[in-house]
Hints:
Order of helices and strands: HHHEEEEHEEHHE
Radius of gyration: 15 Å
CATH class: Mainly Beta
CATH topology: Pnp Oxidase, Chain A
Structural class: alpha+beta
Amino acid sequence: MSIDQNSLSPANAAIARIVSTRPVTWLYLNVFPYIDRFLLRLTRGHLSVSIGQPIGMLTSIGAKSGQPRTTPLLYTTDGNNIILVASYGGQPRHPAWYYNLRTHPEVTFLRGGQERSYLAREVAGDERAALWRKAAARYPGYNVYQQRSGQRQIPVFLLTPKAG
């Protein structure tokens, strides 16, 4: 999956170039989550290190520990649903939250000052392809991460609001 730089806006093309660097990816994986956990809690989901990109807080139950785990994540909306891409910066393995959602799909997600309960499911086939395109249009770095990840197909999750 390659990035056609000509099909992106100038801002998104610049983002795609920046996120393709390993130092920036390292910051997003190893530094920014700690800062974002603090900022997002303090501002009820309104302020993040990733200015210009929507960052929310996923709270899931640990697959092994059974304890709540909170992870700041980039997200894309699809109506009332939330799209999450388990890119892990293009690493060859899935992020820990991927296993949490597979084991315990009932989660909460904080965004824009509102925390709601959702049911997470991994999508496949045409649905995955459509949601991937939507997420990658919002954040072109996903295409860079897919190239970097080698043979691993990056999973996509859809969070649907729970009734009530």
